Amino acid sequence: MDFDPMTDRHPFLDGQPKRMLIGGQWVPALSGKTFETRNPANGDLLALVPEAGPEDIDRAVAAARAAFEGPWRRFKPDERQAVMLRFADLLERHWDELAWLDTLDMGAPIRHTRGSQRHLIGLMRYYAGQATALYGQTAETSMNGEMFAATLKEPVGVVGSIIPWNGPLWACVFKTAPVLATGCTLVLKPAEDAPLTPLRFAELALEAGLPPGVINVVTGHGRVAGAALAAHPGVDKVSFTGSVGTGQEIVRASAGNLKRVSLELGGKSPHILFDDADVEAAATAAAYGVFANAGQICTAGTRVFVQRRIHDQVVERMAQIGASLRVGPGTHSDSDIGPLVSARQMERVLGYVGSAHEEGARLVCGGTRLDDPVRAAGNFVAPTVFADVADPMRIAREEIFGPVASVMPFDTLDEVVQRANDSPFGLGAGVWTRDIGRAHAIARRLQSGSVWVNCYNQMDPSMPFGGVKLSGYGRESGLQQLDEYLHVKGLWIQHG
Ligand code: ADP
Question: Which of 51, 192, 249, 264 is catalytic?
């Protein structure tokens, strides 16, 4: 699509209050309430969005249940596959428009939001393929007589997905694809800071031919709409991506009907650079590992451990890269890094910078808000590198969700494994070394959902993604995820 944000209005932003999707209908909240969503680069109002209450969640869950037990259940696997492939084609055709919407609503540079196209369309098609590849097993039992024993895989039912703001399009595809492949239905609750792309995404889902109620999108606040969804007795599974504290609340809320829960939470990922590594490649990856998406990525490699011999060189190179990155509105094609999603998030990040100063870390680059005339109305923070960081400092322990790197020297493999694992989180980990034996050894010892050696933050539809410890449980992407959306039923038939 030819869309120039400097001169055009985004076609989805027509000045009208948005509606949400329940049972195939575009509806306001029953209360009539709305909330604002704004562009984090300049504070402009983008749209008013329905502010759902528990009564709207009730309606959406009922619609999802009706679709699950009605028309969607009658779709054969190849029919689910066909509608998913049509959906993928539509997403592909409208990708530019969706990417612009993400950029306007949450701030990431358009290059970044566009750039996930191959992976995300690929993910939708990968799971479309799985729709016709689901099967159970037969068992040879030791029973007397003639017994046929088998397992059947059945969809868990109505899924509630609660997503964050740091990659709405990303989250939409990740949460929808396995639901459709397995024959479940969905109530999706976008984040209040970036609700627009999920609404447009759902329009395309309807256009692809999904029956009403298979996908419902309910916009609203976490503590009200999100909490109602997590606690709802009609929801069979909740898939959540967001902060640890909210994840814990969701687990508590899920106890009422013991719904299944999968959680993709935060991280404080270690990025470990041994001195035999390709230093330029490693330092560059370490810098982008923290600064990409302005640090608003759960796998941000914010604890950069550097073997002592190359430590100063890496600090200097990361600072050079940090200082050279262009921080500006996501709609500018030359921006490398956009604003943080909200003023609240910016204050939080600057608070961590303050704590690093107080605790004695050495600022090497950045560390400030960018408030020149172009950027003053947005939430821009300069890429920041701290050296001389000690493990107990807050910036080395807590998830910041901003462009702030902590660089720390180490001497031995045993030492760095112990320090890397000394974190409540376990989401991603990066290792740079040319020693293949060392790479294998450390990869097995790191407590982490993913380990990337001589690369960072790689993702592919075929590979699982998720965490250990406070980074959550359950896996997204890959074949493993399908079982989280399927019940296993044991079938016994005595015959003969
Ligand atoms: P952040 O603090 O960065 O916004 P959250 O984990 O709070 O991260 O938000 C992620 C998602 O969780 C959002 O969609 C938000 O609305 C939702 N959410 C927040 N609080 C709750 C809650 N108590 N129950 C369910 N969902 C919630």
Answer: 264
For the question of residue 264 being annotated catalytic, the response is yes
Ligand 1: residue whose CA is nearest its atom 21: 222
Closest atom, ligand 1, to C-alpha of 401: 3
Point out which residues pair with 475 in neighbouring strands: 466
Please work out, in degrees rounded to the nearest 5, the angle formed at the alpha carbon of residue 73 by the alpha carbons of 487 and 150: 40
Rounded Cα–Cα distance for residues 61 and 229 (Å)? 8
CA-CA-CA-CA torsion sign (250, 252, 257, 261) = positive
Tell which residue, 489, 438, 485, 78, has the closest CA to residue 274.
438
How do residues 221-273 score in pLDDT, each as one tens digit? 999 999 999 999 999 999 999 999 999 999 999 999 999 999 999 999 999 99
CB neighbour class for 23 (10 Å; exposed up to 12, middle 13-18, buried from 19): middle
Region of 396 please: left (phi>0), alpha (psi -120 to 50) or beta. Answer: alpha
Dist. CA 220 → ligand 1 center (Å):
10
Catalytically annotated residue among 172, 184, 298, 365: 298
* pTM for the structure as a whole: 0.97
CA 124/CA 179 separation, integer angstroms: 11
CA–CA separation, 408 and 391 (whole Å): 8
Q: Does the annotation mark 298 as catalytic?
A: yes
Rounded to the nearest whole angstrom, what is the distance from the C-alpha of residue 243 to the centroid of ligand 1? 7
Distance 212 CA to ligand 1 centre (A): 26
Neighbours of 43 (CB within 10 A): 13
Residue 76 CB neighbour total at 10 angstroms: 11
Residue nearest to atom 18 of ligand 1 (CA): 222
